[in-house]
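Hi P.,

Sorry for the delay on this. The queue was packed all week, but I finally got your sequence through. Input first:
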Amino acid sequence: MNVADLTALATQLDAYLWPEEDARQRRKRESILTAAAELFVRQGYRKTSVDQVAAAAGVAKGTVYLYYRNKAELVCSAIALEKRAYVRRLTPLRDATVTARDRLRLLIALGLTLSHEMPLTMSLTSGDREIELAFRELDQQALTDINELQLRMSKQLLDAATDGTLPEEVLHTRAQVLVDLLRAVATSSFVNAEGSSWDAYAHTMANVIVDGVCGDVHGVDLAADRQRGAA
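Then the structure:
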């Protein structure tokens, strides 16, 4: 896993989220963004007002505008906060003692699990028109970069898991298919219909994708146990 990619993106997101160095200002921003995210998820972007965000965060309306020019900037920053948490959770992919296949499994499982912890990001991914229109008001490269990072990580881990045997064109296509598959699964309302433990379901999905539905069941179970124990 390219550590520089993760470090650079984390730094970029931090600079966007916390432009002031003062810890008190950061806490206030985080309180506002957390309140805004909860309201956007519960009520939708259009029905959520800055007044409601201020009240939920326990600050004056003017304080919200001190940090964010408008509601569009609020939702973009709230999505950036979700993405920062996602990048932080990718840290185990740097562990060189973990096999290439297990790192690929972990990337897939984390992508599926975190989709349930990133509701605003998933709303944007699944084509929420309100958030999509708000997002177009701003050009935030940090939020675009993480999508490109996901493809790069998939290529790197897939290349390592197949011992570098795939031609570049095949490798790129398979990595893109994997990213698209994860996005489709994460935004589907039919996934995990029986209501199993989402963590267990995500790891099983990762094992099936990497090893196939006819893979070694014993080995798959052991890999899932190891991953859950390390989490």
